[in-house]
Protein backbone atom coordinates (compact mmCIF):
# COMPACT_ATOMS: atom_id res chain seq x y z
CA UNK A 1 0.00 0.00 0.00
CA UNK A 2 2.82 2.41 0.79
CA UNK A 3 4.31 1.73 -2.62
CA UNK A 4 1.05 2.68 -4.33
CA UNK A 5 0.74 5.83 -2.23
CA UNK A 6 4.38 6.55 -2.88
CA UNK A 7 3.79 6.15 -6.62
CA UNK A 8 0.80 8.51 -6.75
CA UNK A 9 1.64 11.12 -4.14
CA UNK A 10 5.40 11.52 -4.49
CA UNK A 11 7.04 12.78 -7.65
CA UNK A 12 9.99 10.42 -7.05
CA UNK A 13 10.04 6.91 -5.70
CA UNK A 14 11.60 6.15 -2.33
CA UNK A 15 14.43 4.27 -4.07
CA UNK A 16 15.28 7.35 -6.14
CA UNK A 17 15.17 9.57 -3.06
CA UNK A 18 17.64 7.26 -1.28
CA UNK A 19 20.15 7.80 -4.08
CA UNK A 20 20.22 11.55 -3.47
CA UNK A 21 23.02 12.86 -1.23
CA UNK A 22 22.24 13.42 2.43
CA UNK A 23 21.59 16.93 3.58
CA UNK A 24 24.42 18.58 5.40
CA UNK A 25 24.00 19.70 8.99
CA UNK A 26 22.99 23.34 9.21
CA UNK A 27 20.95 23.52 6.01
CA UNK A 28 17.22 23.90 6.35
CA UNK A 29 15.01 21.06 5.18
CA UNK A 30 13.04 23.07 2.60
CA UNK A 31 15.82 25.27 1.33
CA UNK A 32 16.04 26.44 -2.22
CA UNK A 33 19.19 26.62 -4.27
CA UNK A 34 19.61 30.31 -3.47
CA UNK A 35 19.13 29.63 0.25
CA UNK A 36 21.91 27.07 0.65
CA UNK A 37 23.86 29.19 3.04
CA UNK A 38 24.95 27.39 6.20
CA UNK A 39 23.36 28.50 9.45
CA UNK A 40 26.66 28.43 11.32
CA UNK A 41 28.59 31.69 11.68
CA UNK A 42 31.31 30.53 9.29
CA UNK A 43 30.62 32.24 5.98
CA UNK A 44 32.45 31.60 2.71
CA UNK A 45 35.08 34.08 1.70
CA UNK A 46 34.50 36.59 -1.06
CA UNK A 47 37.25 35.02 -3.13
CA UNK A 48 35.24 31.87 -3.74
CA UNK A 49 32.21 33.88 -4.95
CA UNK A 50 29.85 32.93 -2.12
CA UNK A 51 29.91 29.28 -3.07
CA UNK A 52 29.51 26.52 -0.53
CA UNK A 53 32.39 24.10 -0.40
CA UNK A 54 30.30 21.12 0.48
CA UNK A 55 31.89 17.76 -0.38
CA UNK A 56 28.57 15.89 -0.28
CA UNK A 57 26.95 18.07 -2.91
CA UNK A 58 28.69 17.20 -6.15
CA UNK A 59 27.22 17.69 -9.56
CA UNK A 60 28.38 15.50 -12.40
CA UNK A 61 29.21 17.50 -15.51
CA UNK A 62 27.64 15.86 -18.55
CA UNK A 63 29.86 14.92 -21.45
CA UNK A 64 29.61 17.05 -24.54
CA UNK A 65 28.18 15.15 -27.43
CA UNK A 66 29.56 16.08 -30.83
CA UNK A 67 26.90 17.77 -32.94
CA UNK A 68 27.09 19.36 -36.38
CA UNK A 69 27.93 23.06 -36.46
CA UNK A 70 24.77 25.11 -36.66
CA UNK A 71 24.82 28.01 -39.08
CA UNK A 72 23.19 31.07 -37.60
CA UNK A 73 20.19 32.61 -39.33
CA UNK A 74 21.97 35.93 -39.81
CA UNK A 75 24.39 34.29 -42.26
CA UNK A 76 21.52 33.10 -44.47
CA UNK A 77 19.79 36.47 -44.21
CA UNK A 78 22.99 38.35 -45.09
CA UNK A 79 23.34 36.26 -48.24
CA UNK A 80 19.73 36.97 -49.22
CA UNK A 81 20.11 40.66 -48.40
CA UNK A 82 23.15 40.90 -50.68
CA UNK A 83 21.25 39.17 -53.47
CA UNK A 84 18.30 41.55 -53.04
CA UNK A 85 20.63 44.57 -53.22
CA UNK A 86 22.09 43.27 -56.51
CA UNK A 87 18.53 42.71 -57.77
CA UNK A 88 17.48 46.25 -56.90
CA UNK A 89 20.56 47.71 -58.58
CA UNK A 90 20.00 45.62 -61.72
CA UNK A 91 16.33 46.61 -61.87
CA UNK A 92 17.20 50.28 -61.44
CA UNK A 93 19.67 50.07 -64.32
CA UNK A 94 17.14 48.24 -66.48
CA UNK A 95 14.59 50.98 -65.72
CA UNK A 96 17.07 53.62 -66.87
CA UNK A 97 17.84 51.57 -69.98
CA UNK A 98 14.17 51.12 -70.87
CA UNK A 99 13.52 54.83 -70.28
CA UNK A 100 16.35 55.72 -72.66
CA UNK A 101 15.27 53.12 -75.18
CA UNK A 102 11.61 54.10 -75.40
CA UNK A 103 11.97 57.80 -74.62
CA UNK A 104 14.62 58.81 -77.15
CA UNK A 105 14.29 59.25 -80.87
CA UNK A 106 17.93 59.32 -81.91
CA UNK A 107 19.91 56.15 -82.48
CA UNK A 108 22.94 56.97 -80.21
CA UNK A 109 20.66 57.14 -77.17
CA UNK A 110 19.27 53.75 -78.10
CA UNK A 111 22.79 52.33 -78.35
CA UNK A 112 23.53 53.65 -74.87
CA UNK A 113 20.23 52.16 -73.70
CA UNK A 114 21.40 48.78 -74.98
CA UNK A 115 24.72 49.29 -73.16
CA UNK A 116 22.89 50.02 -69.89
CA UNK A 117 20.64 47.00 -70.49
CA UNK A 118 23.70 44.77 -70.94
CA UNK A 119 25.24 46.14 -67.73
CA UNK A 120 21.98 45.56 -65.83
CA UNK A 121 21.76 42.00 -67.17
CA UNK A 122 25.37 41.46 -66.09
CA UNK A 123 24.55 42.76 -62.59
CA UNK A 124 21.56 40.41 -62.32
CA UNK A 125 23.55 37.38 -63.51
CA UNK A 126 26.48 38.27 -61.22
CA UNK A 127 24.14 38.69 -58.22
CA UNK A 128 22.53 35.30 -58.89
CA UNK A 129 25.94 33.59 -59.30
CA UNK A 130 27.26 35.11 -56.06
CA UNK A 131 24.07 34.11 -54.24
CA UNK A 132 24.36 30.49 -55.42
CA UNK A 133 28.09 30.31 -54.63
CA UNK A 134 27.62 31.64 -51.11
CA UNK A 135 24.61 29.37 -50.60
CA UNK A 136 26.77 26.38 -51.48
CA UNK A 137 29.54 27.59 -49.15
CA UNK A 138 27.09 28.10 -46.27
CA UNK A 139 25.47 24.70 -46.80
CA UNK A 140 28.89 23.03 -46.84
CA UNK A 141 29.86 25.04 -43.71
CA UNK A 142 32.91 26.32 -45.53
CA UNK A 143 35.02 28.68 -43.48
CA UNK A 144 36.47 30.33 -46.58
CA UNK A 145 36.35 33.97 -47.58
CA UNK A 146 32.94 35.23 -48.67
CA UNK A 147 34.21 38.59 -49.93
CA UNK A 148 34.50 39.08 -53.68
CA UNK A 149 35.95 42.49 -54.45
CA UNK A 150 36.29 42.27 -58.23
CA UNK A 151 32.59 42.05 -59.08
CA UNK A 152 31.52 45.43 -57.66
CA UNK A 153 34.67 47.02 -59.11
CA UNK A 154 33.83 45.74 -62.61
CA UNK A 155 30.22 46.88 -62.26
CA UNK A 156 31.28 50.40 -61.20
CA UNK A 157 33.91 50.52 -63.95
CA UNK A 158 31.38 49.47 -66.62
CA UNK A 159 28.90 52.09 -65.42
CA UNK A 160 31.58 54.77 -65.32
CA UNK A 161 32.72 53.97 -68.87
CA UNK A 162 29.12 53.97 -70.18
CA UNK A 163 28.26 57.30 -68.53
CA UNK A 164 31.57 58.88 -69.62
CA UNK A 165 31.08 57.69 -73.21
CA UNK A 166 27.53 59.09 -73.17
CA UNK A 167 28.80 62.43 -71.85
CA UNK A 168 31.63 62.68 -74.40
CA UNK A 169 29.31 61.74 -77.26
CA UNK A 170 26.75 64.37 -76.23
CA UNK A 171 29.52 66.95 -75.88
CA UNK A 172 30.77 66.30 -79.43
CA UNK A 173 27.21 66.35 -80.72
CA UNK A 174 26.57 69.74 -79.09
CA UNK A 175 29.88 71.09 -80.47
CA UNK A 176 28.94 69.89 -83.95
CA UNK A 177 25.50 71.48 -83.65
CA UNK A 178 26.57 74.90 -82.30
CA UNK A 179 30.15 75.04 -83.55
CA UNK A 180 31.42 76.03 -80.09
CA UNK A 181 32.69 73.85 -77.25
CA UNK A 182 29.86 73.92 -74.68
CA UNK A 183 32.34 73.48 -71.81
CA UNK A 184 34.31 76.65 -72.65
CA UNK A 185 34.04 79.67 -70.39
CA UNK A 186 33.33 82.09 -73.26
CA UNK A 187 30.40 80.01 -74.46
CA UNK A 188 28.91 79.95 -70.96
CA UNK A 189 29.49 83.72 -70.59
CA UNK A 190 27.82 84.49 -73.90
CA UNK A 191 24.88 82.20 -73.14
CA UNK A 192 24.40 83.82 -69.73
CA UNK A 193 24.54 87.27 -71.35
CA UNK A 194 21.94 86.44 -73.98
CA UNK A 195 19.57 84.92 -71.43
CA UNK A 196 19.81 87.89 -69.07
CA UNK A 197 19.05 90.50 -71.74
UniProtKB/TrEMBL annotation:
Topological relation to the membrane, as annotated: Multi-pass membrane protein
Q: Which GO terms describe its cellular component?
A: endomembrane system; fungal-type vacuole membrane; vacuolar transporter chaperone complex
The record's annotation in Pfam families points to: DUF202 (PF02656)
Q: What is its main location?
A: membrane
Give yes or no: UniProt keyword Cytoplasm: no
User: Which residue numbers delimit the DUF202 domain?
Assistant: 74-135
InterPro entries, alphabetized? DUF202, VTC_Complex_Subunit
- Annotated compartments: Endomembrane system
Q: Where are the transmembrane segments?
A: 83-102, 109-129, 149-169
Q: Which domain of life is it from?
A: Eukaryota
Keywords (A to Z) from UniProt? Membrane, Transmembrane, Transmembrane helix
PANTHER family assigned to the protein according to its UniProt record, in alphabetical order: VACUOLAR TRANSPORTER CHAPERONE 1-RELATED, VACUOLAR TRANSPORTER CHAPERONE 3 COMPLEX SUBUNIT 3-RELATED
Q: Give the protein's recorded name.
A: Vacuole fusion, non-autophagic-related protein, putative
> Which species does this protein come from?
Cryptococcus gattii serotype B (strain WM276 / ATCC MYA-4071)
Amino acid sequence: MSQIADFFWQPFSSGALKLLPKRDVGIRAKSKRADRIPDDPQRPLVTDYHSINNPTMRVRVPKKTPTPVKVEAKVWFANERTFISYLSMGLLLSTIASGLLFGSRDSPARWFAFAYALISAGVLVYGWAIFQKRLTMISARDSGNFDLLWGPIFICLALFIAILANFIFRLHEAKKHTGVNPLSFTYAWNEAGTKSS
